[in-house]
Amino acid sequence: NLAEAKTLRATAKELSSEPCNDKLGAAFMRMDAESLEGQARQDLQLNENNTPQVGTGGELTISDEQVIESPKLINTVDKPDNITAEASRDRLHLMLDVDCIGMAVDAAETIQAENSLEKMLAHQLAAGHKLAMTFAKKALDYLSKQERESFNQNSIHAVESARAANTSAKLMDIYQKGVLALAKVRTGGKQTVTVQHVSVSDGGQALVTGGIKTGAKNGKQQ
Question: Which of 81, 104, 126, 195 could form a disulfide with 95 if both were Cys (CB 3.0 to 4.6 A apart)?
Fold first, then answer.
């Protein structure tokens, strides 16, 4: 509907200009375009009685009845529409494909993801963590094979172990950068620096508190 409306508006613009100069025809086309746009907006709205519940990790949970009644139902979650619901379903399918849905949803729940971008970042962190640990295990597996097999095979296992360990280290670094990226998203990349000014009069001493103790005299703290 939106694509048709856009086409109608473009045609109406041509009709209203020279050499056509068909103002009436252009007006009717604009009316048709507005009607199509209104229908598109209505199609995107979820029925109040059919609104999915927000589940763990901030994703929408769609019941079997809702899937049957609304096959196209697929965040924003506070006021979900069909696009929001479809995006939530797509995220869940991607997590399922990577086989880390438990970790991903738990990560989003842990950081209390407030929007779709934070949810996707949490899911990426979970996927990165899983891959990092998987390659770490591969590195250990190659090392254990090196101890059991012949000398010729040992060098091969050593190389493969080093490769797997290197990949794991890179993934861990990416994971840590992702955590920092989340902090930047939430703080806007700003740092707060507190500066304290201490005024000292003639003959006085400046003292910054914080658990500072004087030396001992006669075995006692002063």
Answer: 104
